[in-house]
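Sequence in, structure out. Go.
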Amino acid sequence: MKLSKEDAARLKDIDIIEQTRAARRDSMNLLDEQGLAALALAVANILDKIIKEPESIIKEYAK
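Output:
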């Protein structure tokens, strides 16, 4: 695939390695945020169950 002169000129000023590292950092940050959101949702669901049905929780873990 040949590059046009315009594309070659644009790519000449871009550091591909640095752009790749920046993209990797951004994706890792998003994954971290996604993991924290999933953990927060799980904790919220557990707290909701404890508040709504404390008797069933006590019976289940008092065995």
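Check: The helical segments are 5-12, 16-52, 54-61. The two ends are 69 Å apart (CA to CA).
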